[in-house]
Automatic annotation (TrEMBL):
Domain of life: Bacteria
Pfam families in UniProt: DUF5753 (PF19054), HTH_31 (PF13560)
Gene Ontology MF term list: DNA binding
Annotated organism of origin: Thermobifida cellulosilytica TB100
Protein name: XRE family transcriptional regulator
Alphabetical list of PROSITE patterns matching this protein: HTH_CROC1
CDD domains in the record: HTH_XRE
Domain HTH cro/C1-type span(s) in chain numbering: 17-72
């Protein structure tokens, strides 16, 4: 499996070019005109929205900014890596143009709050099937494909250096009988097993915690190993997937996650809580 994220590389290249332009004291319009690169193209490159990067455009910008050979080669390398296709590209019908696994591929830490269901990265095939089938008529082959894609995401935990994952899960997600008692029992046992992994921290947010800063809904914050790569926030909605990158947005979700993590049970007490829920289902773990 490819560990590199094309999106991260595309964003890093945009940051490099924007930094070089600002160091040169040029506006976007001035740089585009002097390099003979369309303003819209340069703008999309700097904001990491450009999917096609021409080598001639990069060379023109490198000439304009008078960069050394090492920097020029690094720019071309980032551009080349941004074109690579990860395993998730085979599931574009599932993930869409903005694929969460693309960002997960290079994350060093994943922090997630989930209020309604067990987080996708922790779901069993049977539980995920029940989630995708819920409340609607959907073709069996579509369900199978979505479950297959979700299970593929879980492979990041089997890497030599897996990301550290911190999950705060609302009590309601543990008690909601998705797929029936047997599916739920297997899911909770799997969740408890995941909680014992050294790189995974699971905390339960009990009803007794009351109001908190994440009442607006589930979200995920992905942090990356390089300080050059700022975190990104993922918010899944019924209509679309949102990826938030602005510093004020990231700060707002950081504060929200710190709040729910602070009022949630400890990891040790959370495992005991999961055991209690299992017993309520009529199956001691």
């Amino acid at each position: 499996m490819d560990y590199r994220s094309p999106n991260v590389r595309r964003r890093r290249l945009g940051q490099v070019l924007r930094g070089l332009r600002e160091q040169a004291g040029m506006t976007l319009e001035e740089a585009a005109q002097k390099a003979n690169v369309p303003r819209s193209t340069l703008g999309r490159i700097e904001t990491a929205d450009a999917r096609r990067l021409r080598a001639s455009d990069l060379d023109a910008l490198a000439d304009l900014y008078k960069v050394d050979q090492k920097t020029r080669e690094a720019m071309h390398q980032l551009a080349q890596q941004s074109k690579e296709r990860g395993w998730w590209s085979k599931y574009r019908d599932v993930f869409g143009d903005q694929a969460l696994p693309d960002w997960e591929a290079e994350a060093s830490m994943i922090r997630t709050f989930e209020a309604l269901t067990i987080p996708g990265l922790f779901q069993t095939p049977e539980y995920a099937t029940a989630v995708f089938q819920a409340g609607r008529a959907i073709r069996e082959e579509d369900v199978v494909r979505r479950v297959e894609a979700r299970m593929k995401r879980r492979e990041i935990f089997n890497w030599i250096k897996p990301p550290h994952m911190v999950a705060v899960i609302d009590e309601g997600a543990l008690r909601r009988l998705v797929g029936g008692p047997e599916v739920m029992r297997e899911q909770l046992v799997h969740l408890k097993n995941m909680a014992h992994r050294h790189h995974i921290d699971i905390q339960v947010l009990p009803y007794a915690a009351g109001a908190h800063l994440a009442l607006a809904g589930p979200f995920t914050i992905l942090d990356f190993p390089s300080p050059k790569d700022q975190p990104i926030v993922y918010v899944g909605t019924a209509a679309d997937d949102l990826f938030l990158e602005q510093p004020d947005e990231i700060e707002r979700y950081n504060v929200a996650f710190s709040n729910v993590q602070g009022v949630a049970l400890s990891t040790a007490l959370s495992v005991e809580f999961i055991d209690d829920v299992l017993k309520s289902l009529g199956s001691a773990s």
